[in-house]
Amino acid sequence: MKAGVAAPGRAQISERTYRKDRWWAWPLSMGAVLAFFVVYATIRIFMNKYYWAGEEHYLTPIYSPCLSASCVPGSSHFGTPLPEFPIWLPMAIISFVILAGFRATCYYYRKTYYRSFFLSPSACAVPEPRGKYSGERRFPLVLMNSHRYFFYGACIFALINVYDAVLAFHGKDGGIGMGLGTIIILINLVALLGYTASCHACRHIMGGKLKSFSDHPLRYRYWTFVSKLNPRHGQLAMTSLFTVILTDAYIMSVSAGWITDLRIFN
After folding, report:
1. Structure confidence at residue 127 (pLDDT)
2. What confidence tens digit (pLDDT) does each residue in 9-27 have?
3. Please, are residues 110 and 140 in contact by the beta-carbon 8 Å criterion?
4. Residue 154 falls within a domain, yes or no?
5. Cα–Cα distance for residue pair 214/178, rounded to 1 Å
6. Spans of the chain below 50 pLDDT
């Protein structure tokens, strides 16, 4: 028996939709952005080079933290507890799994790539092509319920990004310095912290399961702050996507010697 819009009792309409506007523009553009990021990130993690600008102390967020003995000298801020990786294994595998898992299970990204790649549905009043809908109760979509656990990992990486940003204030002659890369890293840090803090899982952790906010004034204050960020979660999700690419591309260019970092002082 057919289900969905083709189910018995539903009006049988041959047209896919009666919408006259360019409803396909949003899923098409968002799908192109996500596809570009996936291709870029895949290429970068398998390059295994051009991730550390030693003279400026810039470490790209894609390779942070670098924990393998294969890491170039100076890039391992937390030691090298992992052995050398074979050439085919990305050194950024740990950060990639955690951060990619955090974004892939994010509510906003799920809505975006469900509509763009799976047409589920493409837009309001535009039915999806499949006749059955099982939600996220079966493998592999049931893994989406692990979002809160990826959020915990993302918080740890956010703290690591803060540490990397502090190290970016390193002068070429020692002491404190600042370059264009430092500013780019700081902008990316603000975008990443905003995206992480505005997460729905973060909002639930701050105020979920509380019967009375008056008994927990600090959690109420944190919940209020996160609630103000939460409506901008989608904007911060896409903004942080571009800032990560920009930061990585800039550090890669400096590390490879393609460009010279513009120094503001020292």
Report:
1. 82
2. 667 777 778 888 999 999 9
3. no
4. yes
5. 45
6. none
Domain assignment of residue 109, given as a range: 22-265
Would 11 be classed as within a structural domain? no
Encode pLDDT of 151-168 as tens digits. 999 999 999 999 999 999
CB-based contact 151:233 (threshold 8 Å): no
pLDDT of residue 2: 59
Q: 200-203, long-range: CB within 8 Å, 24+ apart, which pairs?
A: 200/107, 200/230, 200/233, 201/147, 201/148, 201/151, 202/151, 202/226, 203/227, 203/230
Number of domains in the chain: 1
3-state class (DSSP) for residue 27: helix
Q: Which residues of 92-110 are buried (b: 16+ CB within 10 A; e: fewer)?
A: bebbbebbbbbbbbbebbb
In a domain, 4, yes or no: no
Is 90 part of a structural domain of the chain? yes
Is residue 239 within 8 A of residue 189, CB to CB? The reply is no
